[in-house]
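User: Hey, quick favor. My workstation is busy. Could you predict this chain's structure for me?
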Amino acid sequence: MQFGIFTVGDVTPDPTTGRTPTERERIKAMVAIALKAEEVGLDVFATGEHHNPPFVPSSPTTMLGYIAARTERLILSTSTTLITTNDPVKIAEDFAMLQHLADGRVDLMMGRGNTGPVYPWFGKDIREGINLAVENYALLHRLWREDVVNWEGKFRTPLQGFTSTPRPLDGVAPFVWHGSIRSPEIAEQAAYYGDGFFHNNIFWPADHTKRMVELYRARYAHYGHGTPEQAIVGLGGQVFMRRNSQDAVREFRPYFDVAPVYGHGPSLEDFTEQTPLTVGSPQQVIEKTLAFRDYAGDYQRQLFLMDHAGLPLKTVLEQLDLLGEEVVPVLRKEFAKDRPAEVPDAPNHASLLAGARKEGARA
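Assistant: No problem, here it is.
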């Protein structure tokens, strides 16, 4: 399994001090968090994509390219690449470029985002959200796999004899996760292509996550990519830790209450009971995360949200120390126990390249 963190890149006042970081401070903090992730032994850093306040990561490949130059092992990913409002030609070229710069340590997560106004800002109609996701990804998939593309669709101008540059590193496209919280059409899309499905279950109860993952697994098998157990699944999660659980609850509560993604809603206690959010000791985080397998099966990637709602950088780095030193080593060991041999490892560039060469030898 791969373990890592994802960020939504919000610029939120610290409710305990009233201070709001500058955009520059927040961007630099995200970089520091990525570097810390590698230092403590995590596998993945993923950034969101947003084009509206209070969020700053409008150019994920710029940030990830900078991080690539300062890291050696970390897989660089996105927690949302807006397949609906970005031009698939630009996505193809940007991430192929990043692949080369990062020596293959790149994958990405396609999503529609959660900000309705972004559609008209980029000349799109939100009512076509699902159709845009389907058509744009169909083109992107071809652009990475065909040297010359002739294409015509509904939402962009046709392409005649077009070659996106640079070509993917070693002729292998970046691995794609399709991220969704509530849309079965996206689980279907991931299954159709044999790509990964990432369920960012930080908001939803276990039974909803279970239904979405089971749908994806069944359709993955339907399209002939393997057994349901061989489907590639990722999950989101959110934690806040202190060695004493009461200290964690007391410290995190003011941040939870005003968080831009769920503040001013259910109480902290209700939210932690009904969703994967864990606020407590490292052992409590371990126990709740291991329970994800009860309803999602053996899966490949676990990402945690740890840096939003105005939490100061110092606190986030302390969280990463606990995650890397006390939580992830135990999770790696426990998730490996009784893991069926047919369940694949998380994809990376080396495994994708080996698979491509094997297919080429058979041909």
